[in-house]
Structures are given as C-alpha cells and as structure tokens.
Amino acid sequence: MQQDRGASGTRLAGSAVSRRSQQIQAAAPFRMLFGFLRRRAAEESGRPGDDALEVLDFTFGDPHELAMPAYVEAIRDAAVPRDDQWFAYKQSEETAQDAAAASLERVVPLGWTGDNLRMTTGGFGAITVAMKAVADPGDEVVYTLPPWFLYEILAIEAGLVPVKVPALQPAFDLDLDAIAAAITPRTRIVVVNTPNNPSGRIYPPAQLSALAAILEEASARHGHRIWIVSDEPYNRIVFDGKPFHSPSQFYRHTLLCYSYGKTLLAPGQRVGYLAVPPGLPEAPELMDAIDSLQIAGGWLFPNAVMQYAVPDLERLSIDIGGLEAKRDRLVGALREMGYEVASPEGTFYLWPRSPVPDDEAFVAALERRGVLVMPGTLFETPGWFRICLTATAETIEAAIPHFRAAIDEARRDGQPPV
C-alpha cells in the first residue's frame, strides 16, 4: 500500500511569510477547514425574508446548550483569589496534577502520580509538545486516515514530515501491515487516536498489542526509539459499557495526551495534560524537555483559574447516557433510510458512508437544506461524512426528515448508494 508523505513547499518569491507558514496554509485539510468555517458562518447568519433557513449544526464538538451549573460554579470559585500570587505565572500546579493523575489511574491503571504529567493548553498543547519532545525537524510522523484533521499542520509546524496510512474500511481498524511498511529510518512517532475521531472506533487490545510488537521490532532495527503519541481526549466518552484500553498499557514508550474540553463539552476553556508512563527510564529527561518546550512554545500552560478548578472539574462529565440515546436514535433512523453507518463505540460522532461517491456534493445538498455536517474529504477519506452528536435531541429530530430527503433525492437523480 502506498503511503502519502505529504508535500514540502518552497518559499514563494517575494513572500513576506515563512516557508513553514506557507506549508501549513497549503495543507489540504487546513484549506478545506477554513473554507468550511467561512461557509458555516454564512449559513448560520441566515437568509433574509422567505429564504431564511433553520440551521441545524452537526459540525464541531461545540456545546449547544448552557454549560453544566457545577462547571460554571467550579470556575467561578477558582477565580476568587486566596493570596497575592493567585494570578502569578503558573506552570503545572501540583493540585491539578494530582487530581488529573488520580482520575487517569481509574481509566488507565498504570500507577500514575502527579509527577508523571504536565498540565497543558488542552489536547492541542499536549500533542504539540509531545511531538517536539521526541522528534527533530525532518523526522517522520505516521498516522492513520481518517485523522483528526489538524495532525498534519501540527507536524509541519514542528518541522516534521507527515506520513499518512489509510485505515481498514469499513470498520476503520488500524492497518498494521501498512503501518509497518510506512516505518523508515526517519520515523520517530506513530500517532494513535482512540476512541477515534471521526469513526468512533475503540482499538481493541489485540491491535494495540500487535502495534507495540511492530514498534519494538522497528525501534531495534533502526537503532532509535519510535514513540507513540496517544491522542485520548475521548477516553471517558465510551458507550455500552465497552472497556477502553490505552496504547500506554501495551507500549511503555507512549506519550498520552488528554483534553478536558470533550468530557466537559467546553473546548473554549483550554486545559489538558501530557502524561509519561510511570517507571519509564527516560521520564526524568523527558519531563525536563516538556517543561522547557512549554515555556519556549509560548507558555503552553493552562491559565491559573483553569488549573485551580481541575479537582472540581474531575468530578464532572457530560451526560454519556444522553449521548448514547442520541447516537441510537440517529443511527437507527439513518439505517432505516438506507445509510451505511456503524454505531460508534466512543466519542460523540457518527461516521456514515455518503450515499453518493462525491461526499462534498452530498454535504452541499444537506447544507442547502440547512443541515451542516463535515465531508469525509476534510478527513482525507472521501466517500464518508461526519455528524456531531453534541447537537440537541430537538436538532436531531428536526434534521431527520432532511437526511431522508437528501438520500431520496440522490436516488431520484440516478445516484444509488455506494
């Protein structure tokens, strides 16, 4: 299987901006994302007069209802200063680290303590620092398609080379043979995202154990350690009582990245952490590197108030049962209409197959009806689309007739489901 190793750009003559910024702007998912954001803003502004549409937004994992009162109260309480250093410069606050480690231990039992992690500006900050901590410019980062659509630009910003390996469809499991074939002497990182955004797949122990064996062998063969960067912001949004397993439980050389923005449905309040497994011999050196990179990267520590609030925030969660109910309602309705869609094991997304080969055209047809979803091409996986379940139950009910009309229209136009 052929892997996509991205594209290296050359600086445009006379350009005021760096080659790196040009490469970021040229990345296909990044270009598409910004175009999509502009269209969404225009759609949500409404249309004048009789052409006005009700906008039914299933795009980003944003809240569609007011935040939990307990969440607001935790931040309000944390904002009240206790001493004159309350709003001084903060790195990783010990109380936040300890609370985060205790919570992580319940999900991924490896003996975590506060010393094993550093607080970051959400998952973004954790992944950014993790990549730079173990890889140098020119090294390669392997990840699976469909990805979270910003891995590529985070890698480019770090001076790294993205290497893209398609998942096995339709289950969207890891293609272990393809990952093994993608590894070269320049490979330093393999990114694993479980539960996976957008497919909702939780990778089972057998896959993670096999991946660990591949990376152990490749590390020995190439004479340097290949790391996993495990992107786990949804590791507590798991359905049907299904067990979750982290790559760190199978491969010690894993940097675990977590964001509170998903579990609390508050992505605008930036707080997360980067964790290094207990007992790793390289841990002291890594922790020093992480501390330095957080400062050098522009003080990538969460604001003081968010860190003070972490012990209280750790006791809160969005309604997982409510998400399951929305999942079941929409999956059942879509299947009854003729859509191919798996029931996600985690996250808050559905990942249906487009009923026509051109997923962008189908998404545009839904958009004309006021239903906003994300095309699979944004995730570098044409032929699919993503629906976000953070929309309200009322929004789901209002959208169901439009999903039915869109697939019926595709059939009338002579484009049968693929």
From TrEMBL:
It is an enzyme of class 2 (transferase). Its cofactor is pyridoxal 5'-phosphate. It holds the Pfam family Aminotran_1_2. Keywords: Aminotransferase, Transferase. Its EC number is 2.6.1.-. PANTHER family: ASPARTATE AMINOTRANSFERASE YHDR-RELATED. This is Aminotransferase. It comes from Terrabacter ginsenosidimutans.
